Amino acid sequence: MQQHHVMAPRFQVKFTMKSMEQELQCPVCKDIVKQPIVLPCLHSVCLMCASEVLIQSGYPQPELPPEPNSPASTPNMRSPRQMRRPMPKSDRVDRLLRSGSGTYPGRRRKDGPPPLMLFPCAPCGRDVELGERGLAECMRNLALERIVERYRHTVSLGSVAVMCQFCKPPQALEATKGCADCRASFCNECFKLYHPWGTPRAQHEHVQPTLNFRPKVLTCPEHDQERLQYYCKSCQMLLCSLCKLRRVHAGHKIAPVTQAYQTLKDKITKELNYILSNQDMVLTQITQLESAVTQTEVNSVSAKEQLSHCVKEIMALLTERQTMLAQALEGSRQRRADALSSQVAEKRSLLEHAGLMAFTQELLKENDPSSFVHAARITHNRLAQSIESMQHFALSADPSFRHFQLDISRELKLLTDLNFIQAPFAPVIDTQRTLAYDQLFLCWRLPQDSTPAWHFSVEFRRRGVVPGGGARGGIRGGLAAARWGWQRLEEVTGTCAVIDRLEMDSVYVLRVRGCNKAGFGEYSEEVYLHTPPAPVLNFYLDSRWGLHADRLVVSKEQRCARSVPGLSLLQAADRALTSCHLTADLLVGDVAITQGRHYWACSVEPGSYLVKVGVGLESKLQEWFHLPQDMASPRFDPDSGHDSGAEDSSDSPPPFAFLTMGMGKIYLPSSVNSHHCNANYRESGFTNGNGPSSPTGVTYPLPPRLGVCLDFEKGRVTFYDAHSLRPLWEGPVDCSAPVCPAFCFIGGGALQLQELVANRNANQTPVRRVTIQSRVTKLN
């Protein structure tokens, strides 16, 4: 039993070592690697194989060392004097790799640098750039060499007796020791002879006897004898102390190689332990893969049978169609032949001695007038018809069969393009029509050369949701959201979808893929949509206030308004040099906000002159509305009251908050805590957010849609780029009374409220409940 316990681990190690033979094979020669070097792609290949591949690719032959087991590499084939010389301490393989390999032989120093070498790496399936120095850039894989040596020693694969390199050939003994410093193998007697006690050689490192000695540690391929003591994390390469000082590594994360060794070793250990602890999962997946292989064979046979059946059906249909067309052709030929034969017989009867002519001549011999007339009428008709046919001769049937030719160009193209059904290509999401408002509206299309899709699968997930928290955004947020998985809308038949019941002020990731008989296709590119920061407020433009029909027109749906400079502005042009006369038209929403947070969006026509979008107190808007529309500038009346109470209390919030847009630009004030009573506010009665002493601001390109969010409890209003939900400007507003959405036109312009996604398919506008009671309505 004791012997069994001793032999079992050895058998297990031997089995493990034998099972990893595939990992030790060279990808070029498919044999166990010899003198492996590491390519820039981190794959290992034999040095001789790499040299042969480069030569086959057209590069000059590099100078390489002889094979380790060749006679030229063994000292016992040298002369006795050469045997007594001390063995060189530098490895010839590494020296040649650093100096000669990968360079043009005989190249002078004044010549330019050789072209970059490209090595076709088989595992990568692409060309790997070696650099100007070729194989000299590649270091030896000493760790792999040691593993190969242990592998050969353990499984006794290809192991041969290593003879002493210093015994005379007739009495050569088997080597028992190897010297890493002398790079030679010795028997016991020769080892004592060449390593006398009390000399420096006695301190040499003893190793197993071998013919392939390698250096103890890796050295820098550019700086000879410099050990690689550092690791650059940015470049992912080993460095010596001299390479570390280069400018190319300035600012990089460089760590000692011992630290990198321990970090990488710990990672590999954890990964190995994870795989070993989940062997059941691996076995399950192997079972699934084997079942998939079996199903592949079965399904391929079924697919071949189906292919043969489809081709037979096509051939049968072609044969049937050929028979039908041949019958139609034969029927036409028979009818034409009969018609032409009848015409030939008719013409033959007109010959001199033919039937009709002979009969006519005999008829002319009749002398009885009554009998002649009675019998000659039909002959006369026949002769007249014959003369008519002679004068207007035409074939009774077309002998050509031009219209019986088949045009099979389309069918040939179809047969040429005949192929197995393909899954739909990745859809292209229409970012112009896709938006997030009260609901998510996603629109897409298939590429032009894609196969049709039976239906689509829309997948979406909330980005940046951390379980138990509300953090969002960033890489960590995206990784955390991945744990929640994707939600799906299955079997969407159209090219658009509506997604509801979503969280406010959240970013959602969406993607689409099509499906047909071949299965699901590739996913579209992921798009990110930001939901509004508050519930969407649905309202319409209130057309009951006294609108000037010559300047302002509201659409029938009450969601679009257009302002056209009217006659009053033209009549006021002659007064523009003495005083400022403005034509300001006001529109408000048909709702009044008294609590909560609300969001809405609108779009302003880029060609508009000046349009103001914002909110204001309902009472102040009604008060301003009943002032004359063409009013003189209050700049000459300091106590006009158009600042809505800002002169009475400097700390009270303003009753209005507006952003000004026009001529394709949007004006963002630079001050957010002002009294909103700048020059524009004093002239038109509306604020643009600037303070009285801050006339400067910033202009940006007009966004496609402008979003407004009102927080009634906090008395704050925020303007957004509704397309990306990027905040543009935020400021205070008086919310001590009901607040209404408001819009002001100065000059020509157009504005349209954003339609609810839920109302896109509605046939009619729902009935509205009006909350604003304007004085104009009461007076009327």
From TrEMBL:
The entry's keywords: Coiled coil, Metal-binding, Zinc, Zinc-finger
One annotated Gene Ontology cellular component of this protein: axon cytoplasm
InterPro entries hit by this protein: B30.2/SPRY, B30.2/SPRY_sf, ConA-like_dom_sf, COS_domain, E3_ligase_FN3/SPRY, FN3_dom, FN3_sf, Ig-like_fold
Composition bias type Basic and acidic residues, residue spans: 88-97
One example GO MF annotation: zinc ion binding
Superkingdom of source: Eukaryota
COS domain boundaries: 364-421
SUPFAM superfamilies for this protein: B-box zinc-binding domain, Concanavalin A-like lectins/glucanases, Fibronectin type III, RING/U-box
BP terms from Gene Ontology: anterograde synaptic vesicle transport; axonogenesis; microtubule bundle formation; neuron migration
Record Gene3D superfamilies: 2.60.120.920, 4.10.830.40, Classic Zinc Finger (3.30.160.60), Immunoglobulins (2.60.40.10), Zinc/RING finger domain, C3HC4 (zinc finger) (3.30.40.10)
Ranges of residues in domain B30.2/SPRY: 519-762
Region (Disordered): 60-112
Residue ranges of every copy of the B box-type domain listed in the record: 215-257
Domain Fibronectin type-III as annotated: residue spans: 423-534
Stated family: Belongs to the TRIM/RBCC family.
PANTHER family attached to this UniProt entry: E3 UBIQUITIN-PROTEIN LIGASE TRIM36-RELATED (PTHR24099), TRIPARTITE MOTIF-CONTAINING PROTEIN 46 (PTHR24099:SF20)
Protein name, UniProt field: Tripartite motif-containing 46b isoform X1
Organism, scientific name: Danio rerio
